[in-house]
Amino acid sequence: MSQWSQVQQLEIKFLEQVDQFYDDNFPMEIRHLLAQWIESQDWEAASNNEAMAMILLQNLLIQVDEQLDRVSQEKNLLLIHNLKRIRKLLQGKYHGNPMHIAVIISNCLREERRILAAASMPVQGPLEKSLQNSVVSERQRNVEHKVSAIKNSAQMTDQDVKYLEDLQEEFDFRYKTIQSLEQSDKNSVLIKQEMLALQAMLNTLDYKRKEVLSKIGRVIHEIDMLMSNMLTEELLDWKRRQQIACIGGPLHGGLDQLQNCFTLLAESLFQVRRQLEKLDELLTRLTYDGDPIPVQRPQLLEKVNFLLYNLFRNSFVVERQPCMPTHPQRPMVLKTLIQFTVKLRLLIKLPELNYQIRVKATIDKNVSTVSNRRFILCGTHMKAMNMDESANGSLSVEFRHLQPKEMKSSAGSKGNEGPHMVTEELHSISFETQVCLYGLTINLETSSLPVVMISNVSQLPNAWASIIWYNLSTNDPQNLSFFNNPPAAPLSQLLEVLSWQFSSYVGRGLNSEQLNMLAEKLTGQQVSYNDYQLSWAKFCKEHLPGKSFTFWVWLEAILDLIKKHILPLWIDGYVMGFVSKEKERILLKDKTPGTFLLRFSESNLGGITFTWVDQLENGDVTFHSVEPYNKGRLSALPFADILRDYKVIMADNVPENPLKYLYPDIPKDKAFGKHYSCQPNEVSKPSDGGGKGYVPSVFIPVSKILNDSTDPHSPSDLLPMSPSVYAVLREHLSPTVIETAV
């Protein structure tokens, strides 16, 4: 079943979540019509490879054209209209930046997998609950409402300033008219009445000046309060959501909404600034004793400039954290001399700034001596922000050709570092620029989340563990000494993050039973993990009891095994995986003989085994487990074919396949049939003479079990079957069974 088909079967509350991330950037109509094709493409790799992204975009447009041809024949006018509009939209938006649509589609597919995983979980995890807090949503709505109200107030004040300007021009004209009269005329009754009228007008001017200044002061105060409280919280929440998304959590939306708020506030502040400039202009033409403008205007202008400085400084954010194109699901782990990408955005989107802001990237700019290792950035480390490269027109810049290079250390300390020291060192990539606008010059700086520098890909698993632990444990964006004394993490949250590793990396998260097994493995006991705090050492540094590897190395090897060798079986939910030997026997003991389950090896890295239940002649139950299959053996023969063809040779040398039902009671071929590399009737029989003078051979997994022992035995290696073994098979098995076996 395709991922999209699974999504369509979700409950309405989950479908509403899916609906939220499909829009004109990637319309749901295209997702629906091209479901299987979309899921068969590697959008993650394309999101960091421009050439690959361009090819995928072109192929996507070809697929849309084919759909157009189909619906044209069906004369579906509405669908024809929508597809034409969508094709034009896709080509217009992404022709100049194909990587952007790859990022969007990759994120959508990943978010679908996360929602599917969440739907299979009995309860929502604590981290995800906190990110979807209704209080947060209410605050978002309040921020947008207040920003809109502030914008309206600033515009209304504009009208007041215009009225004040008109009133002053009239006063100025009438006053100058009187001043131009002869002295004898100034003593007339009419002139005296005019002077009284001018005095009344001056009083009105004074009142209006005070009123305008008061309104400007209120607008400034409202902006100040909004920036200090709700908007700051919104920005911090977005940064926290970004942290969580980087380690596999829910996608972090809301940046476009923040950009809208920041932009409207900046426009309002610049509008207020122009109003204050206009008041200064009016002041030069007319002032008087008690005039409020020279007293209040400097203070208000200083406050406006201060708010603009802060608004711009907070608006400079890292939209997409540093990531190597070769490892798109392991952001913030960078390898020396390998390119990485990073994207920044200025949330204040003003046309005057397009191509006017040049951003410079540096590494470890403000770091003291947290690490003995020093790096420089090679490649294009200065670029201009613009509105043309982003599909949504945001003011952004993406660095695509940066490479970290390690500087040689004269102290030679690098060689003395332990295996964990490198992957626990945190570094910072900083960005700086300068904004010059309307007489203001504002220096801006921001930094990426801490990154880990590796020099060998073998360091990647432990480096990724450091990234997970940091971003799970703290919302401090720049605590580079974090691992000097890493805090413990709540086990409940850690398990949730571990499930995300599976949902984001291999398409299916972990259920509560699987998480319970991981909890027992981490703690060595059955615990109520809601209140349990796990140490960093237990997670990543200390070896598991009786093993030569850590918990994290064991888990990472399983992720790699799933991704490369058993992904379809895992996505279908047929791999129980995380179940102890004791628990599997409890599950199997009352089942029909031949019932089996698949679990990951606890003693071998990256191994998967199967255990089946059998019944002896005296009625006793016995269990058999094969030696775990690792990536080397699975590269020679697909795991589904192993399950289909597996044979056991008992003491009387009668080979048979003991695997009948996948736990709890699913017929084996029903579960795995679609994953067999070929159907039995497609396998040609070995010819008597062989081909080109060779004796024909096949690969078949075989184990030998003695009747007088119930201990599990290891399967033989997957060696070519000899003619003598083949003769035994022909003697005891029918041709149909032999075809199935080979």
UniProtKB/TrEMBL annotation:
Which InterPro entries does this entry report, sorted A to Z?
Answer: p53-like_TF_DNA-bd_sf, SH2, SH2_dom_sf, STAT, STAT4_CC, STAT4_DBD, STAT4_SH2, STAT_linker
The GO molecular function terms of this record are:
DNA binding; DNA-binding transcription factor activity, RNA polymerase II-specific
Where does the protein end up?
Cytoplasm; Nucleus
> What keywords are assigned to this protein?
Acetylation, Activator, ADP-ribosylation, Coiled coil, Cytoplasm, DNA-binding, Isopeptide bond, Methylation, Nucleus, Phosphoprotein, SH2 domain, Transcription, Transcription regulation, Ubl conjugation
**Which SMART domains has this protein been placed in?**
STAT_int
Gene responsible for this protein: Stat4
Main localization is cytoplasm
Family, according to the entry, reads as follows: Belongs to the transcription factor STAT family.
Residue intervals of the SH2 domain: 570-672
PANTHER family given in the database record: SIGNAL TRANSDUCER AND ACTIVATOR OF TRANSCRIPTION
Q: What is this protein called?
A: Signal transducer and activator of transcription
Gene3D superfamilies in the record: EF-hand, SH2 domain, STAT transcription factor, all-alpha domain, STAT transcription factor, DNA-binding domain, STAT transcription factor, N-terminal domain
Q: Which GO terms describe its cellular component?
A: cytoplasm; nucleoplasm
One GO biological process term is: cell surface receptor signaling pathway via JAK-STAT
Its source organism is Eurystomus gularis
The record, for Pfam families, names: SH2, STAT_alpha, STAT_bind, STAT_int, STAT_linker
